[in-house]
Amino acid sequence: MTIQRTETRPFDDQKPGTSGLRKKTAHFRQPHYLENFIQAVFNAAPELRGQTLVLGGDGRFYNRQAIQVILKMAAANGIGKVLLGRGGLLSTPAASCLIRKHGAAGGIILSASHNPGGAEGDFGVKYNIANGGPAPEKVTESIYWHARNLTTYAISDAADLNIDQPGLQQLETMTVEIVDPVTDYAALMEELFDFDLIRDRIAQKKLRFCFDAMHAVTGPYAVEIFHHRLGVAREALIHCQPLEDFGGAHPDPNLAHAKHLVAIMQGAGAPDLGAASDGDGDRNMIMGAGCFVTPSDSLALLAANAQCAPGYREGLRGVARSMPTSQAVDMVARQAGLPCYETPTGWKFFGNLLDADKITLCGEESFGTGSSHIREKDGIWAVLFWLNILASRQQPVRELLDQHWRRYGRHYYSRHDYEGIAKERAQTLMTELRAQLSQLAGRRFGELVLAGADDFSYTDPVDRSVSQHQGIRLLFEDGSRIVFRLSGTGTEGATLRLYLERYQNDQARLHDDTQQTLAPLAAIAEQVAHIQHHTGRTGPDVIT
Ligand code: G1P
Ligand code: ZN
Fold first, then answer.
1. 3-class SS at 460?
2. Which of 9, 17, 142, 201 is most buried when burial is the number of CB atoms within 10 A of its CB?
3. Going residue by residue through the chain (544 aa), what tens digit of pLDDT does each one get?
4. Which residue, among 252, 259, 214, 216, has the nearest Cα to 417 in the 3D structure?
5. Which residues are bridge partners to 453 per DSSP?
6. Which of 294, 366, 415, 484 to mutate to test the pocket of ligand 1 (most atoms within 8 A of CB)?
7. First and final CA of the chain: distance in angstroms?
8. How many CA atoms lie within 13 A of 378 on its CB side?
């Protein structure tokens, strides 16, 4: 075994986005592409030298090959030990859990999250720091700098390791420990939730549950936790075999892509709770019999009912949501006298608030919910939280939602995505919109009056770092909002995200149709931003 220094030339497109570096799989497989990025990570993270690195991925196509490359590069870059999920598998939340539990200096997670996988699909690499969370911007900027200035990378010429064999192996001077991907994570879940109570309700058939792993990484987690530990029937856990191409589907748990689950939950005899998770297990979708809980409402309900779960019985320090997420959780925080923070899109912005113990729960409208137990959003955790609440409150999801809205009012909410637009066109739309911002305040659109408009900028309350251009907000006098953002995770062209929100506390108007309620806001968005003109589309590609 020897360590090679391979000459290379920088690629200019290795800037990590909202959640790591995400590209077409074929793009990642071109010679030196993965190696360059990994070397840039090691150069930007000298703290890994001699220390432990957690490694795993969501099992998508190219996961296993990439793991071998990274192991050989880790050995050549002086990493002390790699903690690897068996078979190269680790959900994103489980990786975060392992980093924290084992005092690792960082972690590399291979995933393009909810994007389709396969040779024609997407691949991705994320770097997490010692707190278990996504690398903050100063680290991703440094990775990008190193990627642009790279001339060589180091790699061992050792043979491939057997990554399916639990236990210790040696690679150069580095130790590789292959661990079960589920064990530590499942133990953490048992500390947070009342497993006895949930198990009893399930055994009595008073709590019927169905979970769709979408052929992604949460399959083994679901079988161990829901079936073995909580007694959920194995047949109620669907698509639990992780597949390299997710069975050809789009592993994104929402109404558009989790069709199988939606059909079950809308059908006759639907279970009490239905849930799904995404490619790497950090997202979740929650449904009750015949009803869908928006992720923004889910966060608000978890905050309002947190005392049901043993891990949160002592109360919450505060809550946070990403800027485009609806303000439902703000109402709960206000009534409970809790601090509530508004951050830019992306989980990395919650890290400092969690580390400084300013918040306990946080979430995003994009089907992400989580807490201080780790530093990633966590799909299985959110589902367990809901199971715990249903087991203690013993009411149907629909009734819990109704009660919540009656008390706090309802935030009608929807996101409209325009995908695969030419990048320049999307940029022009945003630039023209930005240019109008100062003249928009006070403008009246029917009964809606604009109170203000801005380009969201965030000053981190902990380290005072500033993140600008995080989305254009139109804020109305009645609390309604329209937000425009360009996605930072897409791999083809640009995706325009239009977020619409309208608050209603008239008790007679709590069960209106969401899209109809939001239609006036969508019309204003069109009037102000000329979406059809810029995108050439007559409507959004995906509505969630
Ligand atoms: C999307 C979501 C964002 C989430 C990210 C990673 O990012 O909108 O909330 O944190 O995926 O899962 P975007 O494509 O909008 O930049
Ligand atoms: Zn994900």
1. coil
2. 201
3. 799 999 999 999 999 987 899 999 999 999 999 999 999 999 999 999 999 999 999 999 999 999 999 999 999 999 999 999 999 999 999 999 999 999 999 999 999 999 999 999 999 999 999 999 999 889 999 999 999 999 999 999 999 999 999 999 999 999 999 999 999 999 999 999 999 999 999 999 999 999 999 999 999 999 999 999 999 999 999 999 999 999 999 999 999 899 999 999 999 999 999 999 999 999 999 999 999 999 999 999 999 999 999 999 999 999 999 999 999 999 999 999 999 999 999 998 999 999 999 999 999 999 999 999 999 999 999 999 999 999 999 999 999 999 999 999 999 999 999 999 999 999 999 999 999 999 998 999 999 999 999 999 999 999 999 999 999 999 999 999 999 999 988 778 999 999 999 999 999 999 999 999 999 999 999 999 999 999 999 999 999 9
4. 252
5. 474
6. 366
7. 52
8. 30
Nearest CA to ligand 1 atom 10: 346
33: CA distance to ligand 1 center in Å?
24
Packing angle, helices 379-393 and 295-304, rounded to 10: 50
d(CA 327, ligand 1 centre) in Å: 18
- Counting ligands in written order, the one closest to the CA of 343 is 1
Q: Give the residue numbers marked as catalytic.
A: 113
Q: Which of 364, 486, 492 to mutate to test the pocket of ligand 1 (most atoms within 8 A of CB)?
A: 364
- Domains of the chain by range and CATH? 3-181 (3.40.120.10), 185-408 (3.40.120.10), 410-543 (3.30.310.50)
Give the residue among 42, 36, 46 at the shortest CA–CA distance from 15: 36
Q: What type of residue is 503?
A: Y
The rounded Å distance from CA 127 to ligand 2 centre is 14
